[in-house]
Structure formats: structure tokens, C-alpha cells
Amino acid sequence: MKKRTPVSAIMSTDLVTLNHTDDLVTAEKLFKEKKIRHIPVVSGDQISGILSYTDLLRISFADAVDEDESEVDTIVYNMFTIEQVMAKKLMSVSSNTTIKEVAEILATHEFHALPVVDEGKLVGIVTTTDLINYLLQQF
């Protein structure tokens, strides 16, 4: 296993993002269509938060709906904005942060995704799934 491998080797760069002005219905549709669990919330190329599927589950009955269901019950979602539901106090890493350092951060905190930011610009996202897949490749 390479000890100094940068997170840029495993991070996702084909990003699905939300604008802080989007609604939660749009967010749930993206989660289901793209089969992802974390979406950075941006204003331009600046990250302002991250929305997780778990955040949506906390305010809705989305988990009671079939994952493949495209129709979304919007009543609860219309009561909240993305900015009210997203995580705002973010920890981020740069693309040259080592995979080991990222693993240490994710192992000691209660979140499962880290935005990757270089010079103030969102360039990727790394998740616990990315780490697990990397470890599996090592065997």
C-alpha cells in the first residue's frame, strides 16, 4: 500500500452539485437518479455546504418510499430550504492531502464525505465508499 498517495487518486471529480437556491425535491431526485449519498451545495465554484441523503431522511419519510420511485411527496420539502437542512460547518481537504490523512479524518468524525477544495474552488469529493474501494484494490 502506498503511504503518500494523494486523495486526488480516489476522489470523485465528476461532481453532482446543488445550488443553494435549489429545492429539496430537486435534491432527492438527484440522490435517487445518480445513486449517491452526498451532494455539495455551491454558489458558483465556492462550496457553501454539503447535503446528505441522511439529512433528507431526518425531515421526511423518504426512506419509506421505494428508492426507484421517481415521484416525491413534496409537502415536507416545501417547509425547508436546502440551506436549512445542509451541513454548513464543513471540514475540507486539498487534492494533495494523503489518503491516510483523509481516512484519519473520516474515522474520527461523524460524517462520511469530505469536499476537496484547491485555492477556494471545489474540485472533488471523497467518501468513505471511495476509501473502502481503494482498500479493496490493495488486496
UniProtKB/TrEMBL annotation:
InterPro entries: CBS_dom, CBS_dom_sf, Diverse_CBS-Domain. PROSITE patterns: CBS (PS51371). CDD domains: CBS_pair_AcuB_like. Keywords: CBS domain. Residues 11-67, 86-139 form the CBS domain. Coiled coil: none annotated. This is CBS domain-containing protein. It comes from Leptobacterium flavescens. The lineage of its organism: Bacteria, Pseudomonadati, Bacteroidota, Flavobacteriia, Flavobacteriales.
